[in-house]
Amino acid sequence: MEKRIAVSFSGGKDSTLALHRIIQSHDRKVDCLFTTVTENYQRTSMHGVRESLLEQQAQAMQIPLRKITIPSTCTNEIYESIMGDAIQKLVDDGVTHMMFGDIHLKDVKEYRENMLSRTPIKPIFPIWGEKTDDLMDEFLNLGYKTVSTCVDSKQLDPAFVGRVIDDQFIKDLPNDVDPCGENGEFHTFVFDGPLFQKPIHFSVSDERTVRKDLFTGEDRFYYVDLRPE
């Protein structure tokens, strides 16, 4: 039986590399990209990328996009209710598996597994447990291009936000920062590569949006605005 897969897609490098791996498997069919968007902001959750750029990614890869809208102030109870309804629609449409681009965070992996355990959909983690420096090398060597969209200033200098991720970017990272940003040090937006029929064009704003730490009230997360061209 052919596996029909919904891809949990952030628009960033990890989910893109995992998707690349999945597409190489001939017994699997990618049904859709499955992405959360924050209402009022019209941007992807966590990565802070404009919804229109997300749509361009899906179009460039010629994969249907399913957007799940969540409120800007979202409790875990509300989030799980919204996701439960969205996943049930996947089940109704014949999706058999959901793919995630997680690498090392066991609590996140277990949360996803528990979320799907109440459904017939099975989770897939194509890059789980692999060395992040090897994954980053693979991603770049395949020809993908990506830019950092958000930096956690508790872990990384905000000067890294808005930079294209290449060999120099990796060399400049402090030794205690994961090369894939697996601990939330930075997030990314992929704009070109083997899966893309055409590159996505945008400009990087000079302005930075800063969001506070919910617990301390201090400035913490620095976002750059990518403007479609």
Automatic annotation (TrEMBL):
<dbReference type="Pfam" id="PF01902">
    <property type="entry name" value="Diphthami_syn_2"/>
</dbReference>
<keyword id="KW-0436">Ligase</keyword>
<dbReference type="InterPro" id="IPR030662">
    <property type="entry name" value="DPH6/MJ0570"/>
</dbReference>
<dbReference type="InterPro" id="IPR014729">
    <property type="entry name" value="Rossmann-like_a/b/a_fold"/>
</dbReference>
<dbReference type="InterPro" id="IPR002761">
    <property type="entry name" value="Diphthami_syn_dom"/>
</dbReference>
<feature type="domain" description="Diphthamide synthase">
    <location>
        <begin position="4"/>
        <end position="206"/>
    </location>
</feature>
<protein>
    <submittedName>
        <fullName>Diphthine--ammonia ligase</fullName>
        <ecNumber>6.3.1.14</ecNumber>
    </submittedName>
</protein>
<dbReference type="GO" id="GO:0017178">
    <property type="term" value="F:diphthine-ammonia ligase activity"/>
</dbReference>
